[in-house]
Write a structure and sequence with these properties.
alpha/beta, TIM Barrel, Oligo-1,6-glucosidase, domain 2, Immunoglobulin-like, eight-stranded parallel β-sheet, five-stranded antiparallel β-sheet, 16 helices, 18% strand
Length: 560
């Protein structure tokens, strides 16, 4: 693996709508992000990824783009965006935007023109098919429920494909002219000074053609979109073309949202000459998934979490570098997901951070993660905004769950958990806005907020600062960034531990994923405690006694 400038960096995802509102309209904005750049720099952040801020009707929170060349007025202006790019550069920070090119909005000019003339030029930008008497070309189910086929406005005998929401028509990547439009747009943004992109749902751009049915997996007679992807071949031609036309000429950093890749394809995706610089590790986020829906998903245990992380590390090896996450805008809060119910504490939050951020790969922190923000407790489905959650609630109800049981099931995995406003302080609306927030603030904001943690040396926030500083510390950086990862104590119940080894150094990262103490015998001598989430570490000879949810990073002798 060739060394790259971004390998030693730390990334941070901003969900602009919920980050910081400066004009009192209840929606976060670009000036709010600019105001917080110094905060992010002090935290230890180098790379910023902004979720979509393009013009959009926000049917899917900006992932339905109506104009790729403009900023939605709710977030600010293009002048604000230019200023953000400039201010980030002043602080040696790199800015990524969300690249959403599997689909656009049904309010995009391309789709409106396609509706006017389905047989014309713009009709070929989408997948538009004849649907006589409502007969659909295939039985695929969209990610948000229901058929992927929707009647084309003004043409009841025709339908269009949408793998996501009906307001998100899929773009036809088989059309070279459409691809040229996309490449022109990408290069326009890179020329403005972006460092690169997080690339949304990119595996979906290649459809298995011609249209055909696949075995139904639910009573609705439809087949999941995830299953359909397994039958699509040839995506590499599109991705390599995009890389060569856009990313390589600009030296752009790109991280792909990739699911369903085959192990043998990893070098193609993130090798030295891969389509992308990196891709997210979703191994733990998809654990326990069920074709029946969220209500049937198996909760992940500490041992499961350990196994998922180590499996990903083993799979990627020296091929490239993964981007590691605890949470993002599509997932619930990690501390509510990966820490067993009833065990979520400050030490537990610090342990989870340690175990994830010390893995080999680029850490992506999601806004609020650094202060230990937790899931929301929705009291009613009417409090939910997320379209995916609303669909999964109906799936659970149709499966026979009571309203209370269905709500509990979707609460656990709702995307709205991560989309509630950032909790800056204990004032009204957590300091996010002077107006009415677009999504209610989590009720726990008076207990969990940045202001209460900034000057507390024992806080989750201060621990994140120390952890990120350790990654860049010249004493440890080479080992943390490029060192091998060797799991240890894998047979020990609810212990997650691994060595990070380089030619000059061995670090032992170890955490007791239990509320009760555990004693472990080490095969290496401790030279130094590099980081500890508790005040002290008990040792006796070659044994260490870890308190409940204690996590330590140890500089040890290399004779292990």
């Amino acid at each position: 693996m060739e060394k790259q400038w971004w390998h030693a960096k730390t990334a941070y995802q901003i969900y602009p709508k919920s980050f910081c509102d400066t004009n009192g309209d209840g929606i976060g904005d670009l000036p709010g992000i600019i105001d917080k750049l110094d905060y992010l720099k002090d935290l230890g952040i180098d790379i910023l990824w902004l979720s979509p801020i393009y013009c959009s009707p926000l049917a899917d929170q900006g992932y339905d783009i109506s104009d790729y060349y403009n900023i939605d007025p709710r977030f600010g202006t293009m002048e604000d965006m230019d200023r953000l790019i400039a201010e980030a550069k002043k602080r040696d920070m790199y800015l990524l935007m969300d690249l959403v090119v599997n689909h656009c909005s049904d309010e995009h000019a391309w789709f409106r023109k396609a509706c006017e003339d389905p047989e014309g030029e713009y009709g070929k930008y989408f997948y538009i098919e004849d649907c006589p008497n409502g007969k659909r070309p295939c039985n695929w189910r969209s990610y948000f429920g229901g058929s992927v086929w929707e009647p084309l406005p003004g043409h009841p005998d025709k339908c269009y494909l949408h793998m996501f929401h009906k307001k998100q028509p899929d773009l036809n990547w088989e059309n070279p002219k459409l691809r040229e439009e996309i490449y022109t747009m990408i290069n326009w943004w890179l020329d403005k000074g972006l460092a690169g992109f997080r690339i949304d749902a990119i595996i979906n751009i290649k459809k298995p053609l011609p249209w055909q049915d696949y075995p139904a997996d639910r009573a609705d007679g439809l087949c999941s979109a995830g299953e359909v992807l397994k039958h699509a071949d040839g995506i590499g031609a599109f991705l390599s073309e995009m890389r060569d036309r856009c990313f390589l000429p600009h030296g752009a950093f790109t991280v792909g949202e990739v699911f369903n890749e085959k192990p043998e394809e990893l070098p193609d995706f993130i090798g030295d000459h891969g389509y992308f610089s990196s891709m997210f590790d979703f191994n733990e986020t998809i654990f326990g998934g069920s074709g029946n829906g969220w209500y049937d998903q198996t909760p992940i245990t500490p041992n499961d979490y350990r196994s998922c992380c180590f499996a990903s590390q083993k799979k990627v090896g020296e091929i490239g570098m993964l981007s590691n996450i605890i949470e993002n805008h599509d997932e619930p809060r990690g501390v509510s997901r990966y820490i067993p119910e009833g065990e979520c504490s400050i030490p537990a939050k610090k342990l989870l951070a340690t175990m994830n951020i010390m893995l080999r790969g680029l850490p992506f922190i999601y806004q609020g993660q650094e202060i230990g923000m937790e899931n929301v407790e929705f009291q009613s489905i009417h409090e939910v905004n997320d379209i995916s959650t609303l669909d999964e609630y109906q799936v659970a109800r149709k499966a026979g769950l009571t309203p209370d049981a269905a709500l509990k099931a979707v609460n656990r995995l709702s995307r709205d958990n991560a989309r509630t406003p950032f909790q800056w302080d204990a004032s009204v609306n957590a300091g996010f806005t002077d107006g009415t927030p677009w999504l209610p603030v989590n009720r726990n904001y008076t207990r969990i907020n940045l202001d209460s943690q900034k000057n507390d040396p024992d806080s989750v926030y201060q621990y994140y600062r120390r952890l990120l500083a350790l990654r860049k510390d010249p004493r440890y950086a080479e080992t943390v960034v490029y060192g091998d990862l060797v799991p240890v104590f894998e047979e020990q119940d609810r212990v997650m531990a691994y060595y990070r080894t380089s030619a000059a150094q061995t670090l032992l990262v170890i955490g007791n994923y239990k509320t009760e103490p555990q004693t472990l015998t080490l095969s290496s001598k401790i030279r130094k405690v590099a980081l500890n989430n508790l005040p002290q570490l008990k040792t006796e000879g070659d044994t260490i006694m870890l308190e409940g949810y204690q996590a330590v990073i140890l500089d040890v002798s290399s004779d292990s």
